[in-house]
Amino acid sequence: GEEVAQTPKHLVRGEGQKAKLYCAPIKGHSYVFWYQQVLKNEFKFLISFQNENVFDETGMPKERFSAKCLPNSPCSLEIQATKLEDSAVYFCASSQDRGNEQFFGPGTRLTVL
Amino acid sequence: DQQVKQNSPSLSVQEGRISILNCDYTNSMFDYFLWYKKYPAEGPTFLISISSIKDKNEDGRFTVFLNKSAKHLSLHIVPSQPGDSAVYFCAASALGGSNYKLTFGKGTLLTVNP
User: Fold this and answer.
1) Which residue of B lies nearest to A41 if distances are taken between CA atoms?
2) DSSP letter at B2?
3) What is the rounded CA–CA span in Å between residue A21 and residue A46?
4) What are the DSSP calls for A36-92, one per residue?
5) A97: nearest CA in chain B?
6) Do B42 and A103 touch (CB under 8 A)?
7) How near does any CA of chain B get to the CA of A48, in Å?
8) Per-residue pLDDT of chain A (113 residues; tens, 9 = 90+)
9) Residue B86's CB: how many other CB atoms inside 10 A?
10) Contact (Cβ atoms closer than 8 angstroms) between residue A79 and residue A19
11) B45, A104: Cβ pair inside 8 Å?
């Protein structure tokens, strides 16, 4: 598609439950990025992919967070055993190539109760 | 340790006048800079970018200026319109270091008054 699509728009989970977020990048874009926005205006980089390969995972809390980008499927970000502090808006972005601007999806708001 | 700083949380300007949003960075490895606009409950929208080999880039009403020695960039919007009211984020990456992730500032809320 011509836009980055993210589902669901909102997700509510009880503490300790699993959460899975999906992202469909713009068709033809090779790079996918996940960012977490907490406290309204602070963006934190989580992970990036080049096609289906992990490119940079330096921002991932590895114990509970995992992500995949498989061929012919939306990319996914999964949080096992969610904690209250995971409440945030999660944005996915894609770029055509490594040196290009990143285009963002509308985000998924995760609320952990 | 904030590597990208937007020191003005908010800015208010009159319709038709110039809006100037500022951004400072500390990491000398940053070589690619972007400005995004964000409305509530939406994702950031790309506006304009600049590579460190340039000191100015212009696109319609938007111009970005880069001063590498001062580690400072600014976004000029002329003329400002009420629809420009949004939060503006400055972002940077270190492409030369094969680091394509974006580091964001905390944003500046621009209000353009009719």
Assistant:
1) B106
2) -
3) 13
4) EEETTTEEEEEEEEETTEEEE-TT--TTTEEEE--TTS-EEEEESS--GGG-EEEEE
5) B100
6) no
7) 8
8) 689 999 999 999 999 999 999 999 999 999 999 999 997 678 999 999 999 999 999 999 988 999 999 988 999 999 999 999 999 999 999 999 877 899 999 999 999 99
9) 21
10) yes
11) yes
